[in-house]
Amino acid sequence: MKPWSAEEPTRSPFAVPRGIPGRLAGRLMLRTNRQWDLLDLLDVREGEKVLEVGYGPGGLIRLLRRTPAERIRGVDPSPEMRRLAARPHRAETAAGRIDLRLGTAERTGFDDEEFDAVVSVNNVAIWPDLEAGLRELHRVTRPGGRVLIAWHGGTRPSRIARGLALPEDKLARIEHGLRDLFPTVTRRELPAFTVYSALR
Ligand SMILES: C[S@@+](CC[C@H](N)C(=O)[O-])C[C@H]1O[C@@H](n2cnc3c(N)ncnc32)[C@H](O)[C@@H]1O
């Protein structure tokens, strides 16, 4: 798989979590990727429908579960991550509140304007086609809804996250791609993330 932001294809188990290395990467991500401040920024309200793109081992899904969201949906291309992320939520999956599917940013499989909020954490840089992913996120967000895209960076990134931060020209490509689709786009620097918020 060749990410739009890289010169070469990647086989990193964090980008393509498969088999034992993928499961180990998933467990490490669960321990290290702290996402409370993203949840605050997303500000999920009573009865909302929320989609997470690239949920990985499901750290943010665990937090979304504690919000008043009516429906929590997710897509990720990795069957290993799907198993890991869905495991703690069997009852809510059976009840239909949580539904984690296989899919990608470019093809979520959801209907037009289905979500109040769409969020992607630490995967935008590994999508194969940035613009196709942004168009898809826009398509599934209702008018007035919001999209939040976060990537490693921010004001106090860990040593590992510092190495993964994107250069300004690549961040500018994300920002311009969003501005082509959404009327309002804001960039913020959280302690561990550079975050784009877009209002549809
Ligand atoms: C570094 S992990 C981040 C996972 C999680 N969001 C977190 O912060 O812990 C990247 C995830 O993106 C997923 N991914 C890879 N390509 C993707 C794509 N085209 N669309 C959506 N997710 C993708 C991978 O399967 C992996 O689970």
Characterize the structure shown.
The chain is α/β, with parallel strands linked by helices and 200 residues long. The protein has a single domain, classed as Rossmann fold. Helices cover 34% and strands 24% of the residues. It contains 8 helices and 7 strands, in the order H-H-E-H-E-H-H-E-E-H-E-H-H-E-E. The protein has a 7-stranded mixed beta sheet with strand order 3-2-1-4-5-7-6, sandwiched between helices. The longest helix is centred in the first third of the chain and has 14 residues, at 19-32. The protein is globular and about 45 Å long. It binds S-adenosylmethionine. S-adenosylmethionine binds at residues 14-15, 17, 29, 33, 53-57, 59, 76-78, 81, 104-105, 121-123, 126-127.
Number of distinct helices: 8
CATH class annotation? Alpha Beta
What level of helicity do the residues show? Answer: 25-40%
Radius of gyration: 15 Å
Task: Tell me the CATH architecture.
Answer: 3-Layer(aba) Sandwich
> Which structural class should the secondary elements be placed in?
alpha/beta
| Spatial separation of the terminal alpha carbons | 30 Å
